[in-house]
Amino acid sequence: MQSWSVSSIRQFHQCSLAWFFKRIGVREEFKPVALAEGAAMHEALAHHLRGMQDGKTPTEEESIEILEGAMLGQELEGEVAYGERRGRDTILERLKGLFRHWRANLKIEGTVAGVEQELRVRLPGQTHEMLGFVDLVIDRKDGFEVCDHKVSASRRQTDELLDYHDGQKVAYTRGIELTMNRPVTSWRWSVLTKTVKPAVHEDRLEVRSEDRVAELQRLAAVVNPTVRQMEEILSGERQPVPTQAYARFCGGCPFRMACARWTGAVPQASPRALPALSP
Length: 279
Ligand code: SF4
What we know:
With 279 residues, the protein is an alpha/beta fold. It has helices at 6-14, 16-23, 33-53, 60-77, 88-105, 166-180, 212-234, 246-249, 256-261, and strands spanning 3-4, 111-121, 129-140, 143-152, 184-193, 199-206. 24% of the residues are buried.
């Protein structure tokens, strides 16, 4: 493997079989609505923010057109699984309302230094290069602020002790520091919430230079063994395993048919690793 991404690590830990199906190019049966909505909204947000960066902030109508076009693009890529309760028009109207709300309440404290900033960097302690795209980098007096947009049905649940999105925060803040050669002093989750009344919840977290070493070690402790397991699966030394957290992940999985047919595969390279069965 040449590189890893935050989303591939996350998907692998949700279900290594779904990760494997995606990796080997098994056709997805449908595209979850939430995924299509998130991708379309990110395109519209990036369009607006890039305009701000260039000193030509787009009009609301222009960005709404981008949003509509992006949603159409998602539909052309694969069948979006609209439900019966909320059809396409309702979903699109709700997205437009959310975008307008975000736009009307947007406050950038500093200047836009990067939008959809590509990261290709080997972080200290990592065996492989990371590939990522950072939604927004803001240049502030005290350093950079890195911001990630999430489009969600509910506001982010914070956990001060064990943040399940910690890997993304560490990878992107430390990655930006290395590639843009300036300290990152804060990280911000900007959660666009698809509630009946649209809302944007901001969650700003301090990024401290004295935490850098420990954070990178914590990230390496997740990424390096995961990448090793991924490589073993791709080389046939190890099997992917269907998640046993069925209720959490399988309902919306686009590989349900392939999964139902999956009978496993005997690892090619490790018969010695299989335990001997008692008679
Ligand atoms: S249906 Fe469930 S177990 Fe099967 S690939 Fe999808 S997430 Fe994994």
